[in-house]
Amino acid sequence: MDNDENTYANASSFSASPREGAIYFQWWKRASRAAAVCLGLLCVLLLAGIISLSVYQRNQSTSYNNLTKARDQLQKERDQLQKERETLNKKIKGRRCPEGWREFEFSCYYITKENKTWTKSSEECQKLGADLVIINSKEEKAFINRLYQTKNDVWIGLTDSVTEGTWKWVDGTPLTTANWGKGQPNKIVHTHKQLISLKCCAQMCLHPC
C-alpha cells in the first residue's frame, strides 16, 4: 500500500513539471512579442524622424537657394543703379550753361547790361526762361558779388509787392537775414528753376537797376 502511495506521489510530481514548463514558455513568448512590438514602434519613430529631417533639410536647402538668388538679384540691381548714378553724375558734370552765362554749383547766372525797373527786369529774365534770383547761401552771395564788376546795383528776386514791408522771394519764401550783413540785401538778380536729372537747378540772371 505504501508503494502505491509513493508511486502516485512520484507520478504527481512528474506530471507537474510539464505544466510549469508550459507556463514559463508562454511568459517568454509574451515577453518576446512585447519586445518585438516596442522594436517595431522604435523603427517607425526612427523612420518618421529620418523623413522629417530629410524634409527639413530639403526646405532649408530651398530657402538657401532662394536667398542666394535674391542676393544675386539685389547685387545686379545695385550695380545697375551705380551705373545709372555714374551716368547722371557725368551728365551733370558735363552740363554747360548757355553762352554768356556763368555757372556756380547747379546754377547758371547772367548779367544784363540794360538798366530797368524791378518789374521790367523780372519780365526780361522770364523771357530768357529765368527770373530774379533767390540767394540761398553766403557762398552764392559771394559768387554774385564777384560776378558783376560795376558799381551799379543789381536786382534780386526779393519784393514786398504783396504786403508792403514784408519781404519775400519770388518763390514766396520769406526773407531771412542769416546770409546778409547790416543794411543788406541791397543788390539784385533773377532765377529760373529747372529739373535736370534728379537735381533742382536754378538758372539765373542779374539785371542792373
Report the top-level CATH class of the largest domain.
Answer: Alpha Beta
Strand order of the largest sheet: 1-2-7-6
Number of helical regions: 3
Through-space gap between termini = 162 Å
Q: Globular, elongated, flat, extended or rod-shaped: what is the shape?
A: rod-shaped
**CATH fold category name of the largest domain:** Mannose-Binding Protein A, Chain A
Mean pLDDT: 70
- Helix/sheet category: alpha+beta
Strand content of the residues, in percent?
A: 5-15%
- SSE string: HEEHHEEEEEE
Number of domains: 2
User: How helix-rich are the residues, as a percent range?
Assistant: 40-55%
CATH superfamily of the largest domain: Mannose-Binding Protein A, subunit A
Low-confidence stretches: 14-18, 186-202, 204-209
Largest sheet: 4 strands, mixed
Radius of gyration: 50 Å
Architecture of the largest domain in CATH? Roll
- How many E-type strands? 8
Keywords: Coiled coil, Lectin, Membrane, Transmembrane, Transmembrane helix
Transmembrane segments: 34-56
Coiled coil: 64-91
Pfam families: Lectin_C
Brief descriptors of the model:
alpha+beta, 209 residues, disordered C terminus, four-stranded mixed β-sheet, rod-shaped, 2 domains, Mannose-Binding Protein A, Chain A
